[in-house]
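re the bet — no i am not wrong, look at it urself. input seq straight from the record:
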Amino acid sequence: MVGKVRHLVNRSGRYHARLVVPKDLSGIVGKTELRSPLGADYRQAIKLLPGAVTQLQHQIALAERKAGQGVASTRVARYPLSPDQLALKHYQQRLAFDEELRSDPRYAQIGIDDVLVKRLRDAIAGRASNEELFELVGHEIERFRYSGNLDAIPRTDEWRVIARAMCIGEYEALERICERDEGDYTGTVKAPMILAAKAQAQDVTAPPVSLTGLWTDYLNSRMQAGFMRDKGQRQRPVIDSLRKFLKHNDAGRLTKKDLMAWRDHLMKTLSPKTVNDIYLSAVKSVIAWAVENDRLPENVAATVRQPKPRKVYGRERGYTDDEAKKVLKASRTYQSTPDEFGRVRESTQMANVKRWVPIICAFTGARVSEIIQLRKADVTKVGEQWVARITPDAGTVKSGGYRDVPLHAQIVAEGFVKFVSDADEGPLFHSATKPEKFRSAAVIVSNKLSDWLRKEGLVPEGIQPSHAWRHRLKTQCRELGISDRVADAIQGHAGRTAADHYGDVTIKTKADAIGRLPEYPLSVVSLL
């Protein structure tokens, strides 16, 4: 159970390591307690705490020796550590010492002793005598004894258990040192004993960090910066899924292994793309934010990925000329079909979606949900040009901000402006009345439109029924010599370079570009 961090105190906003001096030694030490400053940053204080406590324990051990209290080999340990804790501590100290040595130019002349490696393996396997164990780690054991961490009598069974644990710590440290020599600092501990000690240390020293609390704070910070205007509706189920899988809500206990297990669990029901691009991506973002804001010590999700099969396209991703004409003719001539009882079960709004959304997408290259979110107030006349404003106020916009998209003359000629004029206030293509419901309503209607196109056989194999308009418009612009910068501004794509963010693509520039797009021969009588 996570609780108060032992030996850590906060005084006036600054952290200190603290040890109480035994009463019988306070006269020698000259104090009733010892403190060592750790700074004002909690995360840094936690890192420095073990070393600081060791130094304080050593001061008390020296006082014990000065007082002449017993023999070192029989003295009772005041700050006992278990064998796995001793192995972890020795492992960490060994690596810290290695890091210091690497700053010395003579270090390059030092290599790994293969004989030592073999002797450590024999010791770990239990094939070393007491004398051999003492030669390998005896001095390290005595060092911990003088720090008050153990009281095992040399060459007893208890002492051998500790000696083998220390050999495990030394062997693991040598493995990391070999990896560092090759430039690899990402080494992972393999020994179960040290892994268990690390997990226990994390449980003891780390205060709980609410996963849902992190998500809420992350969301608020993103929204304050102007992002995630949908209030994280897409990512919220991700955090809920992870919390339910973990069966706890402590982000501080989250490990890379947990995330890999969760990933494998998700793969049973979701596609690799969804798992990697939505679920893992969302968790990485939240944890990265937590690390940047000193809420967590490391991003355990940073290297967790789900490989995605490379998508192979057997054709162009946008509609061809003939395919586009076929879709738009079916759309502009669409009429709701009565059932066998003569009743029309389709809503007027859904019928209007099928009649108008495809042609608007064809000339704007907008995302289908952005068009379905349009409200009557979003269609206005600027000078002599009719414009549709795509704005996050109507639901959600992937790029975050609004953009004005001029309407092609054929859309106006088909009667869209009159349709808007006759419509009631509010959304044109869905029935939601509350702004917080606009996005979900638009998604539902978008899916229904795609289903209709597929059912009518209007969608060729290998393309997305609505997204194909975005690919087609970009292709048309390139064929007409319209710059990608202008096409991006029309479609709501982010600029590719810093230079793209200088200057504005005006309504006139966009209107000129859209005006160059050829009309579709729909053979539909104009409504104007």
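see?? The chain is about 50% helix and 5% strand. told u. also Residues 241 and 262 are 9 Å apart (CA to CA). so pay up
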